[in-house]
Amino acid sequence: MFPAREHREYPHRYRLEAGKCKKCGKIFFPHRLICSECGHREFEKVILPDTGKLLTFSVIRVAPSQFVDQAPYAIGIAELTNGVRLLAQVADCDVDSLKVGMEVRIEFRRIQTDGHAGVLSYGYKFVPKWY
Amino acid sequence: MRDVAVVGIGINKWGELWEKSFRDIYVEAALAAINDAGVDHLDSMIIGCMSGGLFVGQEHLGSLMADYLGQKHLAASRVESACASGGLAFRHAFIEVASGISDIVMAAGVEKMTDVSGDGATYALATAADQEYEVFHGATFPGLYALMATAHMHKYGTTRDMLSAVAVKNHFNGSMNPFAQYPFKVTKEEVNDSVMVASPLRILDCSPITDGAAAVILTTVDIAKKLGKPIIKVIGSGHATDSIALHQRPDITTLKATTVAAEKAFKMANKKITDINFAEVHDCFTIAEIIVTESLGIFPAGKGGEAALKGETGLEGRFPINTSGGLKSKGHPVGATGVAQIVEVVKQLRGTAENGRQLKKQPKIGMAQNMGGSGGSTLVHILEVA
Ligand SMILES: [Zn+2]
Q: Is pTM, for the whole model, over 0.90?
């Protein structure tokens, strides 16, 4: 992760800003310049809901260097209450107790630290809802 | 469009080739293909390579490889589509010959993956995923296929033993392939007990990190006849893409780009899946082979695992898959894989697959499916003995 790349993603990742197609209503996260469903080019900004259900998950045991300290950690794809799907880590959980269909909430967390530039990267993680 | 045939194939022994250079492994495979075809020149060359830049710090492969292959001023270009780069090189060579722009074209793939550390290789491979919305969050390639596996198991009841059956079968086939990186058999117990990488995928569910190259020579059927080679015609070519991020697809238990690419290839060939005798498919992970066999329509959705477990995809089964050993046993030098699949299909169609893995009922039509990333792009080719 490099500083410029981080800055560009701030609005999306920090505030869960998505784009809703003004013609067909499909919501894109991150935002796009053209709708892949209907080809329309105008969008309104919408904020994603912060709850959803886990569609699938995996516990990563062989991790890339930026994530070695966190291993084993879980990643998952969740479908939010408005149908948008995200991939993120599942934090604050017993990785052996995860289940497809479990409810999760989105929380703002530190994601990784870049080894060379030392850039701290923040974003969203899923947390099982009862924590 | 002119009729196109594959007249030469070349591959070298794959593995951790620390004593050989990137350019040398490419030239070895290319020379083998030139010798096999018996051609006296090439009109052009398409090189499939996923990431010369990240693996060995080398781009501009058209110039480098043409020079080291002794082909002064040859038209040579490199194409990239992650792990489907080899399949894409083959498609471009096919288009070039079919269109009449060139008569004799080499499609070759190469990757040198062991000159970087394990973490360096993980980083390079991860560039085939969505960097900012998948890799950023800690997703690895085994992790992405693991997400598909968990979903497939949940939806269809696919089991650990079904995944293991794919690995056992591919290593059995690969044990008879003299070019394979891991030409040894594995047992179900060894797969089931191997180290967990990204649950539910274990190390023996994963294809290895490999150095290797493969090359084929395409020409017109008319020239092929003059060369006196068996005529193996390319009758179908399909190419399709899907969203790069797995989470943006409506259904992650199927591979839509594979289905669409296959439909395009079938349409061009005027064939259907039941006309195909065998296939080489992209088994970068055991779950990938199961989902691919479903997405190609060989088995109904959710039945691919059961078919593998029952031996339907074995050498004696009703639809043999990965007679070469697949990526799992033969190795997976990402840019070379798609071309090596064509090498195996041609060997089977010529009746020359080594050491008893040749299909007994001499096949007439074979297929190759080569996939990039977590299925974000796919190439499908159909070849027939004329
Ligand atoms: Zn739209």
A: yes
Q: What ipTM was predicted for this assembly?
A: 0.96
CA dihedral B359, B361, B367, B371 (to 10 degrees): -30
Beta-carbon separation of B198 and A58 below 8 A? yes
The CA A80 to ligand 1 mean position distance, Å, reads 19
Residue A115 has pLDDT above 70, yes or no: no
Nearest to B104 by CA among B249, B190, B4, B233: B4
pLDDT class of A123 with cuts at 50, 70, 90: very high
To the nearest whole Å, the CA of A48 is away from the closest chain B CA by: 15
Give me the residue from B123, B132, B143 closest to A75, CB to CB: B143
C-alpha radius of gyration, chain A, whole number: 16
Six-digit token string for B247 = 């989470």
What's the token pair of residue B185? 């058999």
DSSP state of B15: B
Return the DSSP state at B110: E
Active site annotation includes B83: yes
How far, in Å, CA of A107 to CA of A129, rounded? 11
pLDDT of the residue at A10: 85
User: Which residues on adjacent β-strands are paired with residue A85?
Assistant: A79
